[in-house]
Structure formats: C-alpha cells, structure tokens
Specification:
It comes from Pseudomonas vancouverensis. Keywords: Membrane, Transmembrane, Transmembrane helix. InterPro entries: Pr6Pr-like (IPR049713). This is Integral membrane protein. With 218 residues, the chain is mainly α. The chain has one domain. 80% of the residues lie in helices and 0% in strands. It is built from nine helices and no strands. Helix 1 packs across helix 2 and helix 1 packs antiparallel against helix 6. The two termini are 16 Å apart.
Length: 218
C-alpha cells in the first residue's frame, strides 16, 4: 500500500507533467500560426480539435482535483470513480491508437518530441498508475460504458461537422475528403470497438482488485 504522502507527491508530479505537455503543445501550435501570420484563434480551435488534447485536459483536470483539497462541485464530480475511470479509458485509447495508427507517420524532434511523448506515452501510463492506486474500486458497472461512450461519439460528430465546414480533419483515418464517409465510419467503428474492449478490461480490473483486497483482509 502506498502511503498517502507518496500518493500526493505522485499525483502532484503527474498533474504538473500533464499541464506541461498541454502547454508545450499549445505554444508550438500558436507559435507556428504566429510565424505564418495566421489567426491565433484558429490555432486554439485547431489545438482543441484533437482527441489527444481533450483527453489529456481531462486527465490533468482529474489529477489536479485529486491533488488539491479545496472542495467544489466540479472537484466532487471529477473524482467520482466512474468519471475518473471513464477518463482512464479515454487516455488509454489515446496511447494505444497513437502507437498503432499514427506513430509511424511522423518523427517529431525537439520540443515537439517532448510534447508528443508526454501526451501519448507518459500521461497514459501515469494516469493508469493513479487509477490503480488512488481511485476507489468496486463502483464500476457495465452500464457505465454507455455513459463513457458519449464523449467519443460527440467528438466524432464534431470532427465530421468541423470537417464538413472547414475541410480540415485532425486525423488521417477521419479524413472524409480522402477516404469517403463509408471508410471513415468503418474506422470510427473500429476505434469505438477498441474503446469498449478497453472499458471492459478496466471494469474487470476493478472487480479483480476488489476481490484481491477482500482476500488480503481475511
């Protein structure tokens, strides 16, 4: 069992790294837009159009709520086990989808490499460690998967709408202009299937950890 003081330090470091990765990535996008004399507002819209950024923002928010002690309705909501666990599923999808589908498409260097590693590799692992050690177990049910799916489904609808209006897509597997709607929906179905499978694994781990804890207490 990890001591509370060690847990707090771990959560603090993870939260700082989460916000650092997001800050670096935002700076790089805005700086690129500035050098091209393009709209910075457009840069912000581009920044928040990525599932990676949105999911890492949720991760950093949950970790910050766990780190701080000031009570609020938002803090209580994010620290509910089913909410924190839903964020765990989303960030796991980020890490696995990037490694399987996107990592080979580019080779970032310098600060972009640091941001890339933080957002796609480091934070998924740190957040899983937080979920394993700090999130209360035993509250997850299969029905929670339906609630967790609202986020990726809403994101997919946003991507299609934004792409239709601006002809810009954040990910190549969602590029309707190149792949067409049938293939994009097939790709999305595959990702959603992966999301559900990861969710089922997480629920299974939740139940296993409860049983393991009960056996140790006997």
């Amino acid at each position: 069992m990890i001591k509370p003081c060690m847990q707090r330090r771990f959560v603090a470091v993870a939260a700082v790294l989460g916000w650092a990765g997001l800050s670096i990535q935002m700076y790089l996008i805005l700086y690129s837009r500035w050098t091209l004399e393009a709209s910075l507002v457009g840069g912000l819209m581009s920044f928040f159009s990525y599932f990676t950024v949105l999911s890492n923002t949720l991760v950093a928010t949950v970790l910050t709520c766990a780190w701080t002690s000031r009570d609020s309705a938002a803090r209580r909501w994010f620290l509910q086990p089913w909410v924190s666990s839903g964020v765990a599923v989303s960030i796991a999808v980020v890490g696995l989808a990037y490694s399987i589908l996107l990592r080979h498409l580019w080779h970032p260097e310098g600060w972009q490499w640091i941001a890339d590693e933080l957002l796609h590799d480091v934070m998924p692992l740190l957040y899983f460690g937080y979920w394993w050690c700090c999130v209360a177990k035993g509250a997850l049910r299969v029905r929670h998967i339906g609630l967790w799916l609202i986020y990726p489904l809403a994101y997919f609808a946003y991507v299609l709408l934004r792409g239709h209006l601006l002809a810009v897509y954040p990910y190549p597997f969602a590029d309707v202009s190149k792949l067409g709607y049938p293939q994009v929906f097939i790709n999305a179905g595959g990702l959603l299937t992966g999301f559900v499978l990861i969710a089922l694994v997480l629920i299974g781990l939740d139940r296993w950890l409860v049983k393991a804890g009960n056996q140790r207490s006997l």
